[in-house]
C-alpha cells in the first residue's frame, strides 16, 4: 500500500475521467503515450518514497538554522533534491529544446503532488523554482532566458518570489521596495521582504529572486509596481555566479509547518559597500501582471499540495484503522470475544469516508485545472482556447482555497482516527496537519481568494466565466440523470447550479448599487457555495464514469468503482446540502459583520 496515494485512483482520474492520453494526439505531446506517462509517475513515486519521505520527520524536527552568515540544514535535503534534478523532474513540463521532458502539465502536476505528499518542506524548493522559471519563460527577455532560465531548469539555480513586505503583508499596493535606475540599465534595489520561502540556503549555486519594487517616480498603488530579477550572486560576463549581490538574510521565520523550508526576512541593499542590483523583467510598471503568472500557477499548486498532504494523512489513517484492534461492535456484548479492527466501527468509517471524499475530490479538482492549462496551450480551436482560459479564471481561487480548507479537515480527521496516538510525533499525521495548516494562507489567504472569486471572477465580462462553468456543471447533471442510480444526485446538482446563478444575480445587483462592502461581506460563504458545488460536480463526473465501467469491471475494479459511487453518495447527502444554507445567508444580504461595533470585540 502506497503511503502517499492510491495509484488506482490516480490512474482513474488521469485516464478515465480526464482522458489525458488524448493529448498525445496533439503535436506538442506526440512523443508521449500512456506508457511514458506511467514510467515518469512510477519513477517519481519511487523517488518520493525512497528519498523524500524518509527525512520528512527529521527535517521537521531539525529545521534550518542561521548563524548570521550561513544557513545550515540536514544533508538529506540536498541529496534528495540532487536526485530530483537528475531525474529530470524540475524541468518535466518544459520544452524539450530547453532540456525538459515536454510532459503535459497534468502529468507534471500529478508528479509534483507525490513529492509534496512525501515531504512538503523539501519539495517547496523545486516547486518555487519551476514557477519562477515559468515566469521567465513567458516574460523574460532572450538574454534573461539564457542567463537565468536555463541554469534554473538545469537545477544549478533555484528561484523565489518576493512580494510581501513587513508593513504591507498581502496589500501589494503598499509595496515600498525601491528600484533606482543606473546608467548601465540595471536598477539599484533597496527595501525589505518578508515570508520568502526558499530565500536563503546552500542548495544551489545561486538563488534567483523575482522581486516586486517601485521605480523612482512610479505611480502609486499597484499600477506603479515593476518586476525585477535579483540574484544572490551577480553574474559575470560569461554568465557564471560572481560577487555577492546586496540581498541578505535578516533572519529565519519559524512556522508551525513546512519547517524544512527556509522562510526568510530579506534585506535588499542594506549592507554598506554591497549594493543590490536587479534587472527589469518586462516593461516598467507592469510587474504585477508578470508576477501573477507565477502566482496563479502557484495557487493551483498550493491547492494540489494541500490535497496531497490530506491524501497522505488519509492513507496513513486508513492503514491504521485496518490494523488497529480495539473494542467490539455494539451488537456484541461478549467481553471475552476478540476486539475488531477499528475500521469496523461506524464513526471511524464516517471519518474515513469524509477523508476519502475530500482528498479524492480535491485531487480531481487540481488535475482538472491542470488539464485546462494543457487545453489552453494546445487547443485546436480559438473557442476551446478561450473556454479553457475562462474556466481557469473562475476555478483558480476555488482550486487554491477549497482543498486547503477541506483537505486540512481530512488531516484533522486522520488524527482523530488514531486517537491519542494521532497527537504524538511517533506518527506522521500531526505533522501533516501542521504542514497543511499553512496552505489556507499560502499564495493569498482564502479570504483573498473569496474576494477574488466574488469581486472579480464571477462578474467579469458580464459573468462569462461563471456562466460557462455552470453550463458545464448542468450538462453533467443532465447526463447523470440518465442513470437511475444517479438520478437523485443529478437533481441535487441541478438545484445547486440554480442556487449559484440566482444568488450571484442578487449579489451583482447589490454591487451595481455601489454597496461594495455589503456585496463582499459574506464572500467566504460564496466561495464555500461555489467550491462545494464544483466538488459535487467532479464527484458526479467520477460516478458517471464508474457507473459505465461497472458492467465490464473485474472483481477488483468493481470494488474500486463501488467505492467511488458510495463516496459520491456520501458527498451529495452530507456535504452538498450545506450549500442551501450558504445561499440563504447570501440571499439575505446579512450585514451582521458590518454592523458589529469594533468596541464589541
Concise summary:
With 601 residues, the protein is an alpha+beta fold.
Number of strands: 12
- Biggest beta sheet attributes: 5 strands, mixed, barrel
End-to-end distance: 49 Å
Strand composition percent: 5-15%
Poorly predicted segments:
none
Rg, nearest Å: 25 Å
The average pLDDT is: 95
Shape: globular
Total helical elements: 19
**Helical content, roughly?**
55-70%
Order of strands across the main sheet? 4-5-12-7-6
Structural class: alpha+beta
Chain oligomer state: single chain
Describe the structure.
With 601 residues, the chain is of the alpha+beta class. It is 56% helix and 11% strand. The protein has 19 helices and 12 strands. The strands form 3 sheets. The protein has a 5-stranded mixed beta barrel with strand order 4-5-12-7-6. Strands 1-2 form a two-stranded antiparallel sheet. The mean pLDDT is 95.
Using brief descriptors, characterize the structure shown.
globular; 12 strands; alpha+beta
How is the topology of this model organized?
Blueprint: H1 7-17, H2 34-52, H3 56-61, E1 65-66, E2 71-72, H4 75-86, H5 105-118, H6 120-139, H7 142-153, E3 157-162, E4 178-181, E5 187-197, E6 206-215, E7 226-231, E8 233-235, E9 241-244, E10 247-252, E11 263-268, E12 277-281, H8 287-323, H9 346-378, H10 382-418, H11 429-436, H12 446-457, H13 460-480, H14 487-512, H15 516-520, H16 523-549, H17 555-575, H18 578-587, H19 592-595
Parallel strand pairs: 3-6, 4-6
Antiparallel strand pairs: 1-2, 4-5, 5-11, 5-12, 6-7, 7-12, 8-9, 10-11
Amino acid at each position: 500500500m502506497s503511503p502517499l496515494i492510491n495509484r488506482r485512483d490516480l490512474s482513474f482520474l488521469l485516464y478515465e475521467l480526464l482522458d489525458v492520453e488524448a493529448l498525445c494526439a496533439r503535436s506538442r505531446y506526440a512523443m508521449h503515450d500512456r506508457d511514458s506517462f506511467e514510467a515518469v509517475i512510477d519513477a517519481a513515486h519511487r523517488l518520493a518514497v525512497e528519498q523524500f519521505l524518509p527525512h520528512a520527520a527529521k527535517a521537521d524536527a531539525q529545521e534550518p538554522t542561521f548563524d548570521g552568515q550561513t544557513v545550515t540544514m540536514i544533508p538529506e535535503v540536498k541529496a534528495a533534491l540532487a536526485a530530483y534534478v537528475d531525474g529530470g523532474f524540475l524541468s518535466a513540463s518544459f520544452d524539450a529544446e530547453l532540456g525538459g521532458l515536454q510532459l503535459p502539465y497534468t502529468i507534471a502536476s500529478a508528479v509534483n503532488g507525490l513529492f509534496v505528499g512525501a515531504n512538503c518542506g523539501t519539495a517547496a524548493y523545486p516547486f518555487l523554482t519551476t514557477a519562477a522559471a515559468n515566469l521567465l519563460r513567458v516574460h523574460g527577455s532572450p538574454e534573461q532566458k539564457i542567463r537565468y532560465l536555463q541554469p534554473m531548469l538545469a537545477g544549478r539555480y533555484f528561484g523565489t518570489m518576493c512580494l510581501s513586505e513587513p508593513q504591507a503583508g498581502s496589500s501589494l499596493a503598499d509595496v515600498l521596495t525601491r528600484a533606482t535606475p543606473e546608467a548601465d540599465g540595471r536598477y539599484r534595489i533597496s527595501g525589505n521582504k518578508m515570508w520568502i520561502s526558499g530565500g536563503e540556503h546552500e542548495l544551489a549555486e545561486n538563488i534567483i529572486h523575482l522581486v516586486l519594487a517601485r521605480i523612482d517616480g512610479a505611480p502609486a498603488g499597484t499600477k506603479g509596481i515593476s518586476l525585477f530579477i535579483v540574484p544572490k550572486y551577480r553574474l559575470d560576463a560569461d554568465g557564471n555566479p560572481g560577487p555577492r549581490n546586496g540581498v541578505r538574510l535578516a533572519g529565519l521565520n519559524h512556522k508551525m509547518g513546512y519547517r524544512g523550508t527556509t522562510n526568510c526576512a530579506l534585506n535588499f541593499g542594506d549592507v554598506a559597500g554591497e549594493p543590490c542590483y536587479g534587472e527589469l523583467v518586462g516593461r516598467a510598471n507592469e510587474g504585477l501582471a508578470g508576477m501573477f503568472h507565477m502566482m496563479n500557477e502557484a495557487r493551483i499548486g498550493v491547492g494540489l499540495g494541500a490535497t496531497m498532504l490530506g491524501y497522505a494523512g488519509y492513507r496513513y489513517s486508513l492503514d491504521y484503522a485496518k490494523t488497529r484492534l480495539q473494542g467490539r461492535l455494539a451488537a456484541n456484548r461478549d467481553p471475552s470475544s476478540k476486539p475488531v479492527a477499528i475500521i469496523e466501527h461506524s464513526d471511524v468509517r464516517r471519518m474515513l469516508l469524509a477523508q476519502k471524499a475530500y482528498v479524492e475530490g480535491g485531487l480531481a479538482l487540481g488535475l482538472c485545472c491542470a488539464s485546462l492549462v494543457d487545453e489552453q496551450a494546445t487547443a485546436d480551436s480559438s473557442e476551446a482556447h478561450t473556454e479553457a482560459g475562462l474556466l481557469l479564471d473562475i476555478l483558480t481561487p476555488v482550486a487554491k482555497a477549497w482543498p486547503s480548507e477541506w483537505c486540512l479537515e481530512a488531516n484533522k480527521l486522520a488524527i482523530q482516527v488514531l486517537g491519542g496516538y494521532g497527537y504524538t510525533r511517533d506518527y506522521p499525521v500531526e505533522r501533516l496537519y501542521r504542514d497543511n495548516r499553512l496552505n489556507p494562507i499560502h499564495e493569498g489567504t482564502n479570504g483573498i481568494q473569496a474576494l477574488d472569486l466574488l469581486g472579480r471572477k464571477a462578474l467579469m465580462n458580464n459573468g462569462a466565466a461563471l456562466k460557462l462553468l455552470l453550463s458545464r456543471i448542468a450538462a453533467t447533471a443532465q447526463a447523470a440523470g440518465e442513470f437511475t442510480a444517479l438520478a437523485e444526485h443529478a437533481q441535487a446538482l441541478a438545484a445547486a447550479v440554480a442556487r449559484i446563478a440566482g444568488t450571484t444575480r442578487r449579489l451583482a445587483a447589490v454591487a451595481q448599487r455601489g454597496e461594495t462592502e455589503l456585496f463582499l461581506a459574506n464572500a467566504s460563504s460564496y466561495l464555500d457555495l461555489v467550491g462545494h458545488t464544483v466538488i459535487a460536480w467532479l464527484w458526479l463526473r467520477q460516478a458517471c464514469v464508474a457507473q459505465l465501467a461497472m458492467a465490464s469491471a473485474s472483481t477488483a475494479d468493481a470494488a474500486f468503482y463501488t467505492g467511488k459511487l458510495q463516496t459520491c453518495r456520501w458527498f451529495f447527502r452530507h456535504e452538498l446540502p450545506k450549500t442551501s444554507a450558504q445561499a440563504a445567508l447570501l440571499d439575505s444580504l446579512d450585514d451582521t459583520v458590518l454592523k458589529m461595533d469594533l468596541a464589541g470585540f
